[in-house]
Amino acid sequence: MQASRVHELSPEEQAIYRRLDPSRLPQHVAIIMDGNGRWAGKRSLKRFLGHQQGAESVQFVVETASRINLPWLTLYAFSLENNLRRPKTEVNFLMRLLGAYLSNNVKRMNDNNVRIRYIGRTDELPHEVRERMEWAAEQTQQNTGTTLTLALNYGARSELVDAFRGLCQEVQRKELALEHITEQDIQRHLYTAHMPDPDLLIRTSGEMRISNFLLWQIAYTEIFVTDRLWPDFRGVHMLEAIENYQSRNRRYGGLSDDLQSLPGNELVGR
Ligand code: FPP
Q1: Strands of 200-203's sheet, edge to edge?
Q2: Could you tell which of 6, 31, 33, 53 is best to mutate to test the pocket of ligand 1, judged by most ligand atoms within 8 Å of the CB?
Q3: How far, CA to CA in Å, does 156 sit from each of 47, 222, 234?
Q4: Strand, helix or coil at 16?
Q5: Domains of the chain, with CATH numbers?
Q6: Is the pLDDT of residue 96 over 80?
Q7: pLDDT value at 199 more than 60
Q8: What is the greatest pairwise CA distance in the chain?
Q9: Any idea which positions bind Mg(2+) (predicted)?
């Protein structure tokens, strides 16, 4: 049976897709979706319409992820700071939009073998939204393709606070000795304990900021910033970012290939 999708692969997407090296696809792509307000402002529209259009982009990107068999896609949908600092009317609108997005797209997620999960202090979100979120997670939990993780009421520093609280409890209960704490112990207390770190982080709308997103997890992540505003972002743009990622040489703190072959390289990079 043909999967129901919001779009067919455009010739441009097909061309990039053919150029990608299937053996070097990222396992985890994370996206800071930014620019909804500016998109609306440029068209003299209310900010709400920018968010609405941004929700359309989400589904395009999710389906492209599923098409290329990307195991993990994480989207920064609503930060703790958004919750605290945006007008109540905008926050309420974003919550309704999320609920509507889930209601309207669960069938498509199932058709595309996408499983949905969440990270963040989601227990602080309105009750009706949490119910919808739980419903969507249950409806898609059997899917084995892309795991779509929505970061909601998320802040990386609060994630670390929550992780350290968990870790300290283990120490208090004498399940773990202070001197034996490792990076892995911190990692297993993060909201993302079950996921690999992102290989690629994309940010739209040209801002060169991390905005309190996945601070621990992006230690060695490749970053791709595009000036395109989120509501204009489509699957083809994610494929462009992945193509750019494949052109890079990931070093994890080591030497680049060209330096490795130089004599005396043991002195470089210390
Ligand atoms: C930034 O735009 C975007 C957000 C507040 C978060 C992303 C939200 C969506 C894409 C809406 C729907 C999401 C889902 C999952 C259905 P901004 O308002 O900060 O833009 P600006 O910087 O141009 O003002």
Answers
A1: 115-119, 147-154, 72-79, 28-32, 200-203, 222-225
A2: 33
A3: 26, 18, 26
A4: helix
A5: 25-155+196-260 (3.40.1180.10)
A6: yes
A7: yes
A8: 64
A9: 34, 222
* Bridge pairing between strands 222-225 and 115-119: unpaired
- Grade residue 269 by pLDDT with cuts at 50, 70 and 90: very low
> What's the pLDDT at 89?
96
The DSSP call for residue 199 is S
Q: Euclidean distance between the first and final Cα of the chain, in Å?
A: 56
List strand residue ranges (DSSP E) for 65-104, in order.
72-79
Which DSSP string do the residues of 155-195 spell out, in sequence order?
Answer: -HHHHHHHHHHHHHHHHHTTSS-GGG--HHHHHTTSTTTTS
Extract the tokens encoding 83: 């919750």
Distance CA 198, CA 72 (A): 8
Name the phi and psi angles at 184, rounded to 5.
Answer: -65, -35
CA of 178 to the centre of ligand 1 (A): 41
> Nearest-CA neighbor of 54 among 77, 30, 87?
77
Instruction: Judge whether 216 and 156 are in contact, CB under 8 Å.
Output: yes
Distance (Å) from CA 130 to ligand 1 centroid: 19
Q: Which residue lies with its CA nearest to atom 1 of ligand 1?
A: 34
Kindly report the pTM of this predicted structure.
Answer: 0.93
Tokens for 26, please give them.
Answer: 């990222």
Pairing of strands 222-225, 72-79: unpaired
In angstroms, the CA 112 to CA 63 distance is: 7
Mean pLDDT over residues 101-125, rounded? 97
Give the burial class of 24: count Cβ atoms within 10 A of its Cβ; 0-12 exposed, 13-18 middle, 19 or more buried: exposed
Q: Residue with structure tokens 């994370």?
A: 30
